[in-house]
Write a structure and sequence with these properties.
It comes from Conexibacter arvalis. Its cofactor is [3Fe-4S] cluster. With 62 residues, this protein is an alpha+beta fold. The protein has helices spanning 15-19, 43-52, and strands at residues 2-5, 24-26, 32-34, 58-61. The protein has one domain (2-61): Alpha-Beta Plaits (2-Layer Sandwich), CATH 3.30.70. The strands form 2 sheets. A two-stranded antiparallel sheet has the order 1-4. It has a two-stranded antiparallel sheet with strand order 2-3. Strand 2 and strand 3 (32-34) form a beta hairpin. The longest helix has 10 residues, at 43-52. The structure holds iron/sulfur cluster.
């Protein structure tokens, strides 16, 4: 599945990092990077991240 983050919405709260630390990474300058294509084994964690994002910035595809 593909992971999209709308960086116009993201406010670097970091909740996604707690939910899926091997997919999302928040840096010292508040920039967020993430794995754009994840396997089925990460689906639950990434769906959890999308749910807890207070800005609803994470969109999953596939
Ligand atoms: S939880 Fe949402 S707002 Fe916070 S860093 Fe992740 S994508 Fe950005």
């Amino acid at each position: 599945m593909k992971v999209h983050v709308d960086m116009n919405l993201c406010q670097a709260h970091g909740e996604c990092v707690f939910a899926a630390p091997d997919v999302f990474e928040l840096h010292d300058d508040d920039s967020l990077t993430w794995v754009e294509e994840v396997g089925e084994d990460r689906r639950a964690a990434v769906e959890q991240a999308a749910q807890v994002c207070p800005m609803m910035a994470i969109r999953l595809e596939g």
